[in-house]
């Protein structure tokens, strides 16, 4: 059981709802009942059959599992136990197309749950959708456990049909991607250009949070910046600048392309995380020809053996990107048949980029100051500048993900070892599942 699951159950208990908890790892239920749930009205179950036997009709079952096949597998196990009128609620981060299919198949109900490990206990934002006939049956529970604002208005209402809730949740999380990247770029300027001490940055973010910038992400950024490790030193500089993601960024970007909506900031925020994960390449300070790297990545997914040099030669004529420059790529592979794509610009290519970078910066700067949109110039330049940075502000991205979602982080000194920190003293010791898309 993840900490968010535990806290959601405790939230329901605090609102006087009796909950029966089940996990496929039965020992986790036993541990939960003996610790966090001790002294509450929460009951446990050792199997799905036992769980449903303890529920009142019509059954209202909320499940939170990893998006994708795991959701389908769980529903398959649950359906034989259900009667007409029983309600199942997918409280995870499922892809909205999957939810649409499931709603149509089952006339079930999907819900996106937002809020992270503390939000789950002290009030998440809830976006219920599906078969509208279900809403009156769950309204009291959902609005009871939802976050409250103003004079007590719940941050929960009926969103719409089928998968609208998961779609809204997806968009919300990707707006968050953009907000996070903007904050991290500000942090990057403060750290590497202005040379601000971390305590000074804390004060800046705390001051901003007293203005129209008042927001949760600004608030937790100040908290992260001031957080000290056990040795009394700030934790953030120790965190590995490699940010993870769990799929919604990719889904939103694909949807934006499908529906022709230019959400360029969200796209850049997704790619910034992808690039930050290339930590081992970045510390070599080697530029990357990213279109060719896409070909290289395809061999991993499809187990293809590609003739990279031959492909470059074929593109010299008959294709719209034909260029004599492509011959130099063939020469590079002839000289080193085992050449890794990420090192393609190691020699002549690297020097060519370095010799023109001052002019590149000046051209982009001139265009920006004149108000001329130059998305391709700027995006290519920003990719290059990000890629050649040994230390990106992605450590702050990962710290924020860990702070509000218990997604863990790695230390620069201990890559591969994922750590969970109780940043506020109110969180738990259980982290979210660690997986990247």
Automatic annotation (TrEMBL):
Pathway, per record: Carbohydrate degradation; pentose phosphate pathway; D-ribulose 5-phosphate from D-glucose 6-phosphate (oxidative stage): step 3/3
Record flagged with keyword NADP: yes
GO function terms (MF aspect): NADP binding; phosphogluconate dehydrogenase (decarboxylating) activity
Domain 6-phosphogluconate dehydrogenase C-terminal: 165-424
Any GO BP: pentose-phosphate shunt
EC number: 1.1.1.44
Binding positions (substrate): 93, 114-116, 172-173, 177, 246, 273, 401, 407
UniProt-annotated catalytic positions: 169, 176
Function: Catalyzes the oxidative decarboxylation of 6-phosphogluconate to ribulose 5-phosphate and CO(2), with concomitant reduction of NADP to NADPH.
Family statement drawn from the similarity comment of this UniProt entry: Belongs to the 6-phosphogluconate dehydrogenase family.
Protein name: 6-phosphogluconate dehydrogenase, decarboxylating
Organism for this UniProt entry: Rhinopithecus bieti
